[in-house]
Specification:
The protein is built from eleven helices and twelve strands. By secondary structure, it is an alpha+beta fold. Helix 6 packs across helix 9 and helix 7 packs antiparallel against helix 8.
Length: about 350
């Protein structure tokens, strides 16, 4: 970035939490090819951070017409398995937002030299771990770029755009606790009075969501189990009841692909967890515990066999704008924002 400067001082930083499924029931396959789900979603205090800025050579890119032809570039720590370019959901979110808001004609990585919107991603959410890391990053991009580019789209419109990117992205835009149905995009906020503590055991080897659902298609049948016990435990802040009610219909499919995950769940229960459940399509395993000291005790027991887990709490809110410096609004008067 030695030849670049932040234009007009415009920059925004957003922190976004991971997602867990406290309950997941697969009702069958829909006509559109997606699976019909009933799931209770909650954010948990493992965070990615996305920093965005408009940069470019000094003296260039200040005119709105030039900015509409800017590039969109993603930088990250080079973690294995993290997609680059338009294969990354955060970049795709930027493309979608720019076009939907009427701010940009074309946001690509190959646009002529000039202004650039730079996305710098710091990852802590496990990659391909069933915790919606990619979806969380897409949500962060929608929120951050909506602020940076002064799109002024309401959060509901961002959720609508999020549904075009993936099933978990609308929830990640909102955060908190929600009951989702359909392919996971129809959301209703859920009352949660408690704060819950987790021992999170990630896995270095990803487990592809598509592989898990194909295994479910081959091995499993539609479920009729309902989330009532989970919802009641959330309302009453009852960690013991929640631990007993945790449920994921994808576990048999994931365990068939990776039998060691079943052993991991058993080890967490044997170590004293109130309950344990696969996170989404896996392979991350979540163990619910009573409090912070209980979390440390369970983590100490399982660390020799499972590696150092992450201690976390839920719910963890939604995307949070942690730093923002955006200039006074200026745009092409012939190109009004939608």
């Amino acid at each position: 970035m030695s030849q670049e400067t932040t234009l007009d001082g415009a920059r925004v930083s957003v922190r976004v939490p991971a997602k867990v499924n406290l309950f997941l029931a697969v009702r069958g396959v829909r006509d559109d090819g997606y699976h019909e789900l009933t799931t209770v979603l909650q954010t948990v205090s493992i965070f990615d951070e996305l920093r965005v800025a408009v940069t470019g050579p000094p003296g260039q890119g200040h005119h709105p017409a030039a900015r509409r032809r800017m590039r969109l570039v993603l930088r990250h720590g080079g973690q294995a398995g993290l997609p680059d370019g338009e294969a990354n959901l955060a970049v795709r979110a930027g493309l979608l937002l720019g076009r939907a808001a009427g701010v940009l004609d074309g946001v690509t990585e190959t646009a002529p030299a000039g202004p650039t919107t730079l996305l710098e991603l710091a990852k802590a959410i496990p990659i391909a771990g069933g915790m919606a890391g990619g979806s969380a990053d897409a949500a962060a991009a929608l929120v951050a770029l909506n602020e940076l580019w002064r799109c002024e789209l309401p959060r509901q419109r961002l959720r609508e755009l999020a549904g075009e990117l993936g099933s978990d992205v609308p929830f990640c835009v909102t955060g908190g606790t929600a009951l989702a149905s359909g392919r996971g995009t129809a959301l209703a906020q859920v009352l949660c009075k408690g704060r819950f503590h987790w021992v999170v055991v990630p896995d270095a080897v990803p487990l592809r969501t598509g592989d898990v659902y194909r295994a479910w298609d081959e091995r499993c049948e539609a479920s009729e189990i309902e989330p009532d016990a989970v919802l009641q435990a959330l309302r009453s802040a009852d960690a013991v009841a929640l631990g007993a009610a945790l449920h994921n219909d994808l576990e048999p499919a994931a365990f068939a692909l990776r039998p060691e995950l079943a052993d991991r769940k058993d080890r967490l229960i044997a170590a004293g967890a109130l309950g344990a459940v696969l996170s989404g399509s896996g392979p991350t395993m979540l163990a619910l515990v009573a409090d912070k000291s209980h979390a440390r005790a369970v983590a100490d027991v399982v660390t020799p066999a499972l590696g150092a887990p992450i201690l976390a709490t839920s719910p963890a809110g939604g995307p949070e704008v942690r730093a923002s410096a955006t200039p006074p609004r200026s745009r092409d008067p012939e190109r009004p924002l939608k």
